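User: Please fill in residues for this 385-position structure.
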């Protein structure tokens, strides 16, 4: 919108299309009041924020057009963010932070973190479009999250939804033929704006209505990250989360194999939050079909697993330094010796003649146990889950 009247003589002010673009130009209160009479309230968009660069840029590009943007971040239980690398003691390259919150702080944007653990079970256990390379139901997952954003938008009176999707970036959910599936199945239809590839898509409602300027959106496609990196540089963004590892553990082959093993051992596809958190921690070995060991990989993981001692039979190494080992399953007294011989392999007594443990049963009863550690070739590869 262009303004008429005495302030039109001010070239900078006359060029502004609404009072949001006057931020920093106008301090004169009566003038602001006059402008606001001509300008509707700012449009409000909700952006899906994963913590990665694409969703950060998508929100920023729309924010830069004077739209009020708030972020949504969904906690499924499978998020990579701030879990494993927050626990491990070893020095990590990745900073120990929640990247979605960090993005919100960088953009000066309110972030709503929404727990979808229970609802997400249906998405993961019965995906209509199946799984990707591992146990990632990306297409169903995207439709679910955009659908949740649509519900949120309706409840909170927002105008449209932003995602950081790029055509051809991901093999399952971000293909030319699957982007319309997400828009349709989520119920968002053309309220869904993908600012990074909008120029390759039919104009959405926010573009047609002039809430955002299509000319200032982008036409990125393909797997290359260079256009996003160049755009980040234009905005002066030097630091951002690297995409390695993706946004969730379901894309990880090793994690998927542990989850399949869990379902197989239970005889059904079922999980609770503790189950899926524990799959992120420690080495997992299944020497017998009816029990599995979770062996901490460092002192940080041992401390974390200590929180689960009340719920699992476990082994604490007493004669040497070594990790805590949880035992999951219907473990009988006779299974403890094999479990202890395996656990002994991962402590400082791995070459000793004997390693001692305090063995605690699931019912809390205890006994002391001394065993000969297994040698590496006595631990078959297929015991590792
Ligand atoms: S990687 Fe995970 S969170 Fe991301 S779309 Fe796929 S299933 Fe959903």
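Assistant: Residues filled in for all 385 positions:
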């Amino acid at each position: 919108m262009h303004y008429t009247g005495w302030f039109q003589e001010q070239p900078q002010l006359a060029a502004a299309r609404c009072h949001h673009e006057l931020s920093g130009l106008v301090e004169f209160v009566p003038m602001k009041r006059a402008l606001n009479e001509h300008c509707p309230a700012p449009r409000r968009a909700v952006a899906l924020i994963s913590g990665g660069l694409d969703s950060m840029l998508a929100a920023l590009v729309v924010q830069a057009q004077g739209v009020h943007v708030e972020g949504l971040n969904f906690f499924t239980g499978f998020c990579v963010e701030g879990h494993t690398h927050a626990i491990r003691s070893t020095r990590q390259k990745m900073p120990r932070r929640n990247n979605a919150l960090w993005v919100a702080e960088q953009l000066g944007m309110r972030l709503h973190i929404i727990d979808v653990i229970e609802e997400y079970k249906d998405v993961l256990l019965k995906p209509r479009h199946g799984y990707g390379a591992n146990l990632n139901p990306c297409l169903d997952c995207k439709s679910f999250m955009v659908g949740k954003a649509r519900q949120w938008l309706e409840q909170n009176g927002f105008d449209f939804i932003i995602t950081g999707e790029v055509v051809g970036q991901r093999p399952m959910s971000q293909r030319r033929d699957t982007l319309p599936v997400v828009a349709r199945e989520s119920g968002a239809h053309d309220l869904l704006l993908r600012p990074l590839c909008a120029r390759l898509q039919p104009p959405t409602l926010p573009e047609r209505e002039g809430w955002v300027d299509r000319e200032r959106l982008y036409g990125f496609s393909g797997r290359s990250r260079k256009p996003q990196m160049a755009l980040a540089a234009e905005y002066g963004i030097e630091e951002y989360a690297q995409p390695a590892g993706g946004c969730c553990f379901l894309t990880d082959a090793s994690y998927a194999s542990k989850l399949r093993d869990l379902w197989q051992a239970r005889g059904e596809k079922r999980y609770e939050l503790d189950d899926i958190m524990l799959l992120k921690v420690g080495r997992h070995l299944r020497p017998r079909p009816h029990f599995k060991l979770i062996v901490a990989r460092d002192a940080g993981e041992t401390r974390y697993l200590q929180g689960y001692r009340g719920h699992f039979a476990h082994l604490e190494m007493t004669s040497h330094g070594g990790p805590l080992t949880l035992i999951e399953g219907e473990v009988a007294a006779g299974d403890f010796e094999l479990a202890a011989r395996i656990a002994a392999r991962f402590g400082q007594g791995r070459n000793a003649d004997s390693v001692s443990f305090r063995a605690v049963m699931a019912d809390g009863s205890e006994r002391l146990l001394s065993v000969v550690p297994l040698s590496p070739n006595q631990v078959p590869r297929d015991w590792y889950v």
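For context: Residues 33 and 380 are 76 Å apart (CA to CA).
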